[in-house]
Amino acid sequence: MKAQQVTPAGQQVLLNDLELARYYGVSIATVRKWRLRGQGPKWIKLGALVRYRVDDAQAYLNSLPLGGGDERRQMQGGGPAANSPRDRQRASFAKLSAFD
Q: Which CATH number, 1.20.120, 1.10.1660, 1.10.246, 1.10.10, labels domain 1-80?
């Protein structure tokens, strides 16, 4: 993934609440609650608008701990789970990255 994603006009790609909610697979209400509680990815206030940098959304996702059966499978030599939730989120992110 690129370090900085830019539009043809040279501006960074910014996501709104709906786009971020779709990326994470949560409701818009959840995204807004995270913001009010100081959780979730970093956000930018542009007048009355709230936006999220693509890099910040990905960094937040990468900062979350892994859990479930992945660690047990790796310890048993089975390798990581195919099509894990994180893999699906990364695939969804790749679709959002097609804005440029």
A: 1.10.1660
Amino acid at 17: D
pLDDT of residue 56: 95
Radius of gyration (C-alpha) of the chain in whole angstroms: 15
Residues of the chain with pLDDT below 70 are 1-10, 69-85, 92-100
Whether 43 contacts 35, CB under 8 Å = yes
Return the residue matching tokens 């894990």: 84
Rounded to an integer, what is the distance from CA 23 to the centroid of its chain?
6
Residue written as tokens 């709104």?
A: 16
As a whole number of angstroms, the distance between CA 84 and CA 91 comes to 11
Domain-by-domain residue ranges, the chain? 1-80
Count CB-CB contacts under 10 A for residue 26. Answer: 14
In angstroms, the CA 74 to CA 41 distance is 29
